[in-house]
């Protein structure tokens, strides 16, 4: 069997401190780590960063499904368990926003961005791989200066291509349920990782989103209802 290939994701460790090259600045304010989940035997692989997110020194623990679920926030655990069950039976990627608790009891808010691992020879889906993006503490003062440097560096592109970037941020906010600032940082991270300009990445994302399958009828119906009743939710002293 040939080495499985990963579609849309690479298993490369990222760091939460400055590094040389193009990717360092983003990691000073966005904690990112990579993982692999092999369906056969439910085998997990965590990068050093993901281990540290959960409170473990690298190499001191072997990740398992049981361990992974034990760290999920009690309010999210059943949801993640159902997602994992769906992933195993559908061959889809393990991607979702949820909370987990580290060994010291600290609660982390994270989004998991992943894609399938596909065998080159058979085309069979062997697993899923991608990134944990830890959004916890992204607003603290210790990281503000580094974050501001990245924003300042990106401002010319931001002003020149504001529409595309704002649209891309809107897509990220809707899909991952994150704030505008968190959505921008996630896009900035991918820009740094791939060494592609932020505006170019944003424009391509908007273009590709148009090719995704339409939302379900149920979601469309709920959005229709929201659109037609949203005026009823606005406080009397705000916009009337």
Automatic annotation (TrEMBL):
Note the Gene3D superfamilies from the entry: PAS domain, Winged helix-like DNA-binding domain superfamily/Winged helix DNA-binding domain
All copies of domain PAS, residue ranges: 46-91
Spans annotated as Disordered? 1-25
Q: According to its UniProt record, what is one Pfam family this protein matches? A: PAS_3
Q: Where is the composition biased (Polar residues)?
A: 1-20
Q: Which domain of life is it from?
A: Bacteria
Q: Cross-referenced InterPro entries, in alphabetical order?
A: ANTAR (IPR005561), CheY-like_superfamily (IPR011006), PAS (IPR000014), PAS-like_dom_sf (IPR035965), PAS_fold_3 (IPR013655), WH-like_DNA-bd_sf (IPR036388)
Ranges for domain ANTAR come to 145-206
Under the GO molecular function aspect, what terms does this record hold? RNA binding
What is the protein name stated in its UniProt record? Transcription antitermination regulator
- Organism in which the protein naturally occurs: Mycobacterium florentinum
